[in-house]
Amino acid sequence: MQLKLDGLEAHLRQAKGRGLAPLYVVHGDEHLLVLEAVDRLRQAAREAGFTEREVLSSERGFNWGHVVQAQQSMSLFGDRKIVELRIPSGKPGKDGGEALRAVAAQPSPDVVMFITLPRLDFATAKSAWFQALDAAGVSIKVDSVDRTRLPAWVGERLALQQQRVEPGEPGRRALQFIADKVEGNLLAAHQEIQKLGLLYPAGPLTFEQVHDAVLNVARYDVFKLSEAMLSGDVPRLVRMLEGLRGEGEATVLVLWALTEEIRVLSKVRQGLAAGKQIGVLTRELRIWGPREKLVPQAAQRLSLAQLEAALGMAAKLDRQVKGLRAEGMPAEPWDGLLQLALTIAR
To answer: Are residue 13 and residue 137 in the same domain, yes or no?
Structure first.
């Protein structure tokens, strides 16, 4: 059974009457939300009488027989047990896959198992071991908080501690300010929100209070940079490039990410010119997630000539970041990267 994170509370309310599933798989890259989901499951399990807890982590050399043993062995005191299995790599391998299938095939009424995984790729989601777990229990997908939804998420978290921003434009600016400062670092966002709860009483928060309290703890992802470029969000694009530069990110990696996205746009544009449907192109080019909407929009606003010119600029930048001479480019490669990204964003 597959479940979105926002459906967890409803599921647990129903479980009070009919009991918890024998196992839960929580998967996603937002560590804060994964931890919170497992905390909530653990709380529900304890309320249901599962008092003992055993934690396993599949590090190098892990003995997968311990997983089956943990599920099938009784507690020394006859207590019902929680078994938590963490698979940081998301790849259990052959032995792990067999162990997980065995666990799924023989659930125990006295054991509830929580398995945590990073975000699943297509192949993992279709693997025999994951399909077996999904069929035997509940899999909970933890989606990342999209940048456009981050201000609202911050507002919801403030409400949980009886705080809110002031109404109107000042409040909107306050939420946007927090989102800008914590982008890409949800755990830090959580900590900053908690800090506001410690510094100020329940009730409205002014922009000045938020500004004085919140640090710049954003963590920028080079692959999210492409999303900012595709969406035409120039302020965010500039901020992310400055952040990546400040964090010491390699220019060659940033250039590669931008160039690959421009190549995809060029292929989409060529496909559209040849009469192909956009849905066919997105499948052929494996354009998924937020990019499934952003890439077609960007391809529609850019001509093939513009994209070819951008690829020519990228080729010059490639020479420059390798220490070779590149005519017509800014002396500083980061300025050239910004120039390249802006040709697509505008």
So the answer is: yes
